[in-house]
User: What shape does this take?
Amino acid sequence: MGNYKLSSLPIDSLQTRFVEQLARDNLMVEAATGSGKSTRLPVWAASLGKVLVVQPRRIACEALSAYVSEQLALSGSPYKVGYSIRFHSSVNENTNIAFVTPGIALRWLAENQLADYTVLIIDEFHERRWDSDLLLALAKSLPLKVVVTSATLQGNKLSEYLAAKVLKTTGREFPVSVSYEARESHHLPDSRRVTDSVKHAVQKALIKDDGDILVFLPGRAEIQACQASLSGLDAEVLPLHASISGQERKSILDNSNEQRIRRIILATNVAETSLTIPRITSVIDSGLERRTKQRAGRTVLSLERVSRASAEQRRGRAGRVCAGHCYRLWGEFAPLESVTPPQLQREELLEPMLFAASCHRALAKLHLLETLPEKSLSIATERLNRMQALKADDCLSQHGQRLLALPIDSYFSHLVNLIPEGAEREAMLDLAAALSINRALFQKPKSEHGLKVLSQWQPLHCDMSITLDLLRGKTWPDELSVNQEALTQAQELAEQLRSVMALDDLAEAKNYSRDKLLEALLGEAKELVYVRREKRTNAMGNGSAELQIGRESLFDDAQVAAVVFDIYSLPGRGVKQLNNIGLCLAPVNIELLVKHDYGELESKTNVAADGSQLMQRVYAGRVIGSEKVALSAEDYRLALAKRILANQQSGFSQLDCIQDMAAWNLWVSLGEKHGGGVGDKVEPLEWLSTQLALLGVENAEDFSLIEASDLAFEGIPQWQREDFEQRYPRKLALADLKLEVEYKAGSKQVIVHYTSGGRKAGPKRWELPSWSGWRVFYVKASKRVTLT
Assistant: This one.
């Protein structure tokens, strides 16, 4: 590396050991917050060759690249430093140290196995992001040295997994005291009064402490609320999250010695690791974060309490320049979990599986730190196969390769690639950009007048259309509230995606056919199509999932069907309950669903004399059309059998064979030792269909020659039938009480169900058959009692 003079940091004591051991082994470096590991280790490792440094956040990649580059320039080092994040890169063939996000590293690994690099450093590994976990699993087999760093790690488990030597050092130079601000020692972090609690703690810190204040909040909404609440204080209140501009971030991270007003930095988890914010002496920790987890097969973003490990990371932000203090807005003995569960254990696995296959590895067969949930693997495999993204478990199809060409959610990329090239694909690309920023572009007017004006401007009541109109610069009415910041962000992303696809700028976007775009999706992405429930009109279903129509959607009350482009999932009250909110709905005519064969045909009428039947087409529980269908002989017999079993076929109601089969199945289930007999159970629908075939029934004319007696079933021997029915009746008529009887031979239970009668009390045991050796229960409504 050379003898370059850099300011002293706690981790400097490891320099010699680090360089010597890295030449021979993989390393795990456990160094506390503030040790300098993120800035020193890449420089030391560069003495062995080019270094790829993986940082979990884009904002950290840019900031660390700038800081290390500046420090090396001041010290006279020849090393060149760059960064690469989505859409931005300063890395070239002369770069010695490259700071990148995990997604970029995975893409480079898929391209050339990271052949340009000698050392891979995965920083802040304790966050246990899926992309960092996957990258480490893939990199283990590559011919390069791997360094994993963190402030908090379970060292033995990781060092054994990586076959790595462990280096440790302290990091915090100054003590940080802690106070717990909740009234009770067991109180958990609480989101209900977070704004008031933060304001109270900030006012206390402004009086008691010197220096700037860093406040940890779960998200942008809470940051905006607290920013408004703190606006009257004698301090500069600044937000810090992933969406702020580069200039705003640079101002916050500026370490100049100019005298200035005290600052209050309102930050998300982006400030928890990697970034060093100067002059912070007080940390106020809400104890909350927005974290993904899996619920009912989908990844949902929920408000969660931080782990104790995360709380320690946050506390460490106050001890960088002098002694500090951390105000925790919960009780000292609140039962927080020790560490945050890894993402691979709590999220869908579609993206990890896609990236693993891009590197010719099957996710299910990779040796990871923890075994992956089988259900999550199954769901991801099924979804990717439905998208036709996989050629094999460890190989992408051509379509799968196209999905990774766009640096957005793979499902949005899938939709873009489903549309034929042309103006409609461009429109889908722009829409994907707008949906990828995860922010609403507009709010509907609340007044009747405003809604009328909006309806006149957007007569189709289509969220897709209005989103594209706003994105492409169409002038909107004053009554519509547009989030200009979100719109600008969406437009910037659309321009970047267009550049990747080598398309014209957004200002030159071609006019598209809304109908052509939606019809392409109706044919290729049927899971996006929902129909309104007939009774719960704010709910829609697609046959496998249900959602609520978002409050800001333009979808009109009179519209029935829609393509739903985006769904926001929230955890419900129960452990498995999930609330899905449809965010971008494009209405479609229900006739188009019939045209594309949505739903199933269901019989609602008798078979006509010509062998045809009027069938209803039912999709997600709603009738969307009807059509006359000519039945094959097999289908004709099946339809007849269903109607006979349902007592809907004239002349065949109360058919003896139905009762005979029911008695036979009970006889077989009881077996000889319980007074039954030997044989196989019969399935009534299958038996009737087969019997009709044996009778030569192929059409209505054939069936007209059949009588009920032709469908006789030879079941229980006649000489045993009467005695058996007396001992094991299936229906009972008592005084003012009618009952149906269910037998469970395996557990020797008899369940007597109330069907009708005015008697308030249930049957007495002496009124029933003896049923010796059986337990007898009486069920009425939802109440079940034992009869003794």
Observations:
- The radius of gyration is 34 Å.
- The first strand starts at residue 26 and ends at 31.
- The first helix runs from residue 15 to 22.
